[in-house]
Amino acid sequence: QQDFDVNIKLAYVDMLGMSHAWREGDMECVVIDVLPIEHVDNNACLEKGLDAEKTLMRLIVQDLDECHQFLLDSKCMQDCHFAACIQQLTQYIQKQHAVTHVVTAGNNNDDDDGNNNSGDIDHDPHLFLKQERAILILADVIWTFSTRFPHSFQKWMGGLDILSWVRSLSHESRYINLLVKEMTRLKDQQPQLNEHKENASSSALSLSSSSSSSSSSSKIDWWMEYIEFVEPFLKIANERELRDFDHCAKLLLERYRPTSASDAHVQGHDSSSSSRPLATLSYQYPQYTHETSSGMRVSISSANASDNWTNSKLRGGLSINMCINLDSIIDTPPVSAKTYVVPNRLCIVLKTTHTMNGNVQTDEIVFDDSNIDSFLQFEDPNDVFRMLKYALVFVGIVHVHTPAQAKRILTDDITSFIGGGEGSHGLGLELVNLGPSRSGFASSSAVACNLLKVLYTCAGVAHIANDNILLGSMALLFENKLGLKSGRQDVDGLLPNGLKILHYQSRTDFQVPDISYFSSSFKLDQLSKNLLLVNSGIARASSLGLHRGLNMRFWAYLSRQPHRFKPILQSYGIHHELIKALHFNNYIYLGKLFLDYMSCREKIDPGATQSIFDNPKDGKVLRRLFDPLVKNGIIHGGMFTGAMGGGVAMLVLTENTKQNNQIYKVLEQLKQWKSDTNEVPFQRLSVIPYSVNIHGIGYRKYVSQLT
User: Fold this and answer.
1) Residue 283 is inside which H or E element, if any?
2) Both 74 and 219 in a single domain?
């Protein structure tokens, strides 16, 4: 238009917070088009004089959803930009949390560029959580620097004291050693070899679309080399999440928990420095056995792990879950714990009935003078008594002693706790967990809740034992202190009233749920008739490694890579549709949504439907629980519960299937099916009869006569 002076500019915009038109001075501005950043001309991504490091810091400090890799791939990113980005990111990661200050969300000294005016102290209450993303971005900056400007990178590395630099990022020696190894390996590579590599983002995208087997093979090599490099950075990022967790846990314990000498072990600080007096716990009603019992949690949706610590603290989390009884166990809850006084013998008796090795088995151990020095060993994840031992320490019944003073566990701690009466008595603690192990049932959380409730009850700590939300917080802390990577909804699964809708608000302290329930139009008694639970018999892989479960979701969230972050955002929408489907008892829609949900999880974490039985001819064996059954009209859809990767599947039955029980014939055929490698993957497959538990964790006490 000749009558107007039109000035077209490229700008980053927040599409959620802006309007389509606004004014700047005497000019009216309108958006004429929106381009995803990956489609913008690379030469325009960095205007002359714009600091690349400030752009990256905006992504981190403001928690924006733009992927940093597109900036790193920009043609106008030069070697000097990469060096400046590394310096800025390192300084941000080295900042310390102002834990001694009272802080609230949004009250900090950072400007919008991430510049802090308090030196090495930062008042952002989410500092540790934002540093997680900064650590991953730092890894990608270094990797891309080495691939795009190998000679300049070698020069930069020549001036770097690798060990000192790594120590400024982490305090964990095991992670320091891993990262030093990877940085040294990158430094020692020849520059001409680096020039043939690709960046991580383009390698991942082209890997999925490449049709050439030789090309695909080389890209797999590049991808695996990148994964090996980035893994220690992810471990260090996870360390920051644990720092935030520990900080919030410390505040929680100081507020609610009786101070005891065991706090030195559980909280990681010297309890003698506390101004609060040490609490002395005592067994309430020694003539009684105290017992708790509960069902097990089944997660219908977590919006694909939105309840994990970092995500829920920064963005909020969602969940739909329920507590169930296993109807195959007559008159016996799947999880229970009890404690009692052992008469006339100074000892600790631990007994557990479990399915850790597949079949139900019972183990028992008695700790007395001859072996009490081994009681305070919690490191072995295969130790069936691990959670029982640590529960006694966590609650404060047993205190932490040096190996030379281990006998004080009996002579001081147990004697003081039991108290009264003639002679010396011991303490018994028993656990029963009949649910399938590593199945997605969050059985460890059910165990933690029962152990803590029975011990807090018998110790007279009623304000924790009788508060379901606070008890859940303690159970979450208990599990994570043992290295069990549980989410908040795992411990909230045992809350009463059947099927629950849980919402976790973004917050700066310990995460707790806002709870709502389905209206009366939802027919709870019809759920088990339409939703079949099937134990695939294929245990989920451990999530301790990088390539499984929550760690892959953690990586997708921090990286914001579109092909894996988009499904995270889509999962929120699917979650809300799941609520609608259940509200209207629409099981046809529910089944379709389950398939969509699982498809998102596969994009976030390819291991969600992978197993050791996969092969080129049969493909993903775990999908045989769903795809053929949908195709043949047996089910409307389904998915695995929990973190997936095997375990328990939820199948939504069609009307015809419910009437003719055809599902059991089909599952029996699948149970006997042999793969192309002559294996029988589903040989341990079984249907799980269940009913919804509406009571939560039960408690009773009954007389156990001392003799």
Assistant:
1) none
2) yes
